[in-house]
Each structure stands twice: as structure tokens, then as C-alpha cells.
């Protein structure tokens, strides 16, 4: 269970989060939506302690991670897998080494066991044959899938996805959604996913939260969101130019 | 008016002090991981290759030409006072005590230092550093410590190579071109170059290595938000490293007179 309570964060006078609240139950898959530059990534980074809030707390499985020591934070981080917005693959390592990295560093598996797991993961994300390429040599869609494989390889209890499908063609988008749903079924992780994929996301997640003006404006199941009369939600679903969200 | 002035100076001084403290903690943090396992051997080898092996060509080039130019200049001066025989020791001492460490350090800064800042800065803005943190791995241990250890190994070695090549460059010009006898060139060197001179040169190389890597790693690690941050950090890192090399060279030089 993850609980975000009254989270405030500014960068040099620019208010990004302004009292955000959110509860994510165990094994739930929740999507966060909101305008670009609205602070979704900043919110996600708070969940794993990469950003210190100005005010408020982030409680992960009963512990307020904004207040723990570095050592304790590392312990909590070991429960997480993260897919960063750009993939954040290590440039100096091949695809294979990238996926194997968490296993090599965090587990005592033998070389053979690591190989077996990585090969299985590569197959799951449909990337057989590129394991010896470097991140600079593969396409954006492939990078996202490698990042996904790397995040899931340690079978984490909580997975954070920062726009895992943005910029991909609809076929790969569906493939990634299916992959997330399948692994979610298989391992039962708690998932927080930033996404813009309307309407596809409705079939993927349990709930959807809208971040607007630094707070979580609306949360609900896909069904509720579809029927919502909230003007922000309506505008988002329709992609309309007219509404509370101003395009600057 | 005066109060306003004092306030500006004071706040500037405080921010400079804060940055210096922050930099010092960064270095101590990196050095701490030199002594606490697990050690990152693979990364260390990679850095030695990058900072060291790949700087070889340019060090060889710089070293030989520095030696040759020195020979021309010093020979010209020495002939005026009629003591050409001192050419060997003069070249050797200038190289070993001064020019070897300084020029090697400046060369490595230009060749590898800027690239290191850019590399680390890009890792920061593409969230690779965050990815390490998110895996509960300390990015300083993985990225910074191996680079600093590599510099401690590489700077004295490259400096020694620079010195030797420089002395042979001087030999080429002094003996083969200007007609000094080869016996004079080398035997006088043995008389005048002490172990102390060599030690000073190596201390300098070591100091410059740590300084350069410290500055370049720090600037990359704490690069500004966004891509223009990286190019600014890279420029800053090179300028600051070069200035620090020259200042610390003077300080060390006066210390070991
Ligand atoms: N480390 C940082 N330093 C300064 N500004 C930041 C930092 N991280 C995010 N921001 C700013 O916060 C705002 C929200 O960013 P972000 O969370 O990335 O938006 P998005 O919702 O598109 O993911 C942006 O205006 C961004 O420029
Ligand atoms: Mg974002």
C-alpha cells in the first residue's frame, strides 16, 4: 500500500505539487494522467524517494519514506521496479547487461541462472536477437521494452511506470499494455503508471487519477471516469481545446 | 548603501562556502567507497582505459614536442653563457618538476575531463543516475569512485611517460640536431636530477589527478536541469580544472622549493 499525503513541492518558486493526496492499494494498477509539465513525473519520483517534498509524506507499506535514513530507504527501494520516462538504460552496457544488471548487483544468482532469466525476459518483451546491441543502436520502442524488462526482472512488489508507451505506434502500445497486464497477473505487483493512452488505458488499469494544478483532482475506476462530469476529466477524455486546462 | 553592499558580498560568500562544503562532502563520499567493499573492478578498468589508455597518443605527441621545443629554447640560452653541457639536466628538471605534471594534467583534462563531465551529466539528465538510486545502488560508488581511483593510477603514469618522451624529444634536438654529445646529455642528467625532484613531480601529478576528476565529476553529477545544463557544466569543469591545476602547481611548487 502506498499513501501520498498532502504533498507539496516547488522548484525555485515554481509550484509543481500543491497538496496532492493519493492512496494505492496492494496489487492495484493505477494510472496517473494530467497535462504535460503538470508534475506527474515529480509525483512518481517522490514515491521512491528521489525527490524530497517540501511538505507532506509518502507512506510505503507503513513507513514514511520522507523521514527514513538512507539505509532504510534503500531497503524499501529494493521492493521497487521503475521504468523511467526515457528508459534510463545505461549507455555503457548492452541490452543484455542492462537487464542482467539488477540481478548481478542485487541477487546471488549464478551466471547460468541470470542468463536463463534474462533470456526469458527478452522473449517476454519480444526482443530476441538484440541483446548484444547498445541502447544507442535500438529504436525508442525497443528501449522502452528493455526498460520494462529491466524493471520487472527482479519481480518487484511495486512497479512505477513513467509513460511506458508514449511515442510508440499503436501496435507496440498494445503489446506493452498486454505485457504489463500479463506480468501484473503473473506476479501481482502494485503498479503506478503515468499514461496518456485514452481510451486504451481504460482496459488496462483498475483506477485512474487525474493530477491537475498540483493536486489529485479526481480518482475513479475507468467506468466512473468515463461517466465523470468533472470538466478537467471531460476535457481530457475528449482532447478538447475548450475547458479548464489552458494550452499555453 | 553600505549595508546593501555587505549583504550582497555576504550572501555571495555564503553561497561560495556552501558550494565548497558540498564539493568536499562529495569527494569524501567518493573516497569512502575506495575503502568499503564491494569494489567495482570492471568499472575501474573501464575508466583506466578511458582516462589513461585513450590519452596515450596525445600525451606522446605533447611530450615529444614539449621536449623538442625546450631543447631549442634552453640550448639557445645556455650557449649565450657557454654552458651547453647543462642542456640535459635543464630539460629533465623542467619536465620532471614542472612541465610534465602540468601539461599532462591539462592535456588529460581537455581529452578526458570534459568527456567525463558530459558523460555523467547526460547520465543525470537521462535519469540513469536515478535508475541506480532506484535500484538501491549508490551512484557515487558506481560512477565516481572508479573514476577517481583510475585518475590516481593514471595521472602519475601518464606524467612519467610524458617526462620520458620529452627527454628523448630533447635528445633528438639537442644531440642529433644541435650536435651535443649524447654522453653529456644523459650523464649530466644523472648528476643533477635527484629522487626528490621525481617525487615532487609525482606528488603534483597525483594532486592534479584528484583535483581534475573531483571537479569534472562534481560538475557532471550536479549538472543543471535540462540539456543546456550539461554543456554549461562541461565548459565550467574544464575552466575550473585548468585554473586549479595552475594554482595548485604554484602552491605545491613553493611548498617544495
Ligand atoms: N529537478 C528539477 N528542477 C527544476 N525543475 C524541475 C525539476 N523536475 C521537474 N521540474 C519542473 O517541474 C515541472 C513538472 O515536471 P514533470 O513532473 O516532469 O512533468 P510531467 O507531468 O510532464 O511529467 C516542470 O515544469 C519541470 O520543468
Ligand atoms: Mg513526465
Structure notes:
With 248 residues, chain A is an alpha/beta fold. Chain A has helices at 40-47, 70-77, 95-106, 111-124, 140-152, 170-187, 222-227, 231-238; strands spanning 2-11, 14-24, 29-34, 55-60, 63-64, 80-83, 158-162, 190-194, 207-212, 215-220. In chain A, the strands form 2 sheets. A 6-stranded mixed sheet of chain A has the order 6-7-8-3-9-10, with helices on both faces. In chain A, a hairpin with a 2-residue loop joins β4 (55-60) and β5. Chain B is mainly alpha-helical. Chain B has 2 domains: 1-32; 37-256, no CATH class. Chain B is built from 9 helices and no strands. In chain B, α4 crosses α7 (182-192) and α4 packs parallel to α8. The N and C termini of chain B lie far apart (46 Å). At the A-B interface, α2 and α3 of A face α5 of B. The site of magnesium ion has 4 residues of chain A, from α1. Residues 11, 16, 34, 36-42 of chain A line the site of adenosine-5'-diphosphate (ADP).
Topology overview:
The complex is a heterodimer of chains A (248) and B (257).
Chain A: E1 2-11, E2 14-24, E3 29-34, H1 40-47, E4 55-60, E5 63-64, H2 70-77, E6 80-83, H3 95-106, H4 111-124, H5 140-152, E7 158-162, H6 170-187, E8 190-194, E9 207-212, E10 215-220, H7 222-227, H8 231-238
Parallel strand pairs in A: 3-8, 3-9, 6-7, 7-8
Antiparallel strand pairs in A: 1-2, 1-4, 4-5, 9-10
Helix pairs in contact in A: 3-4, 3-5, 4-5
Chain B: H1 2-35, H2 41-52, H3 56-80, H4 87-125, H5 128-134, H6 139-177, H7 182-192, H8 195-221, H9 227-255
Helix pairs in contact in B: 1-6, 2-6, 3-4, 3-6, 4-6, 4-7, 4-8, 4-9, 6-8, 8-9
The complex binds adenosine-5'-diphosphate and magnesium ion.
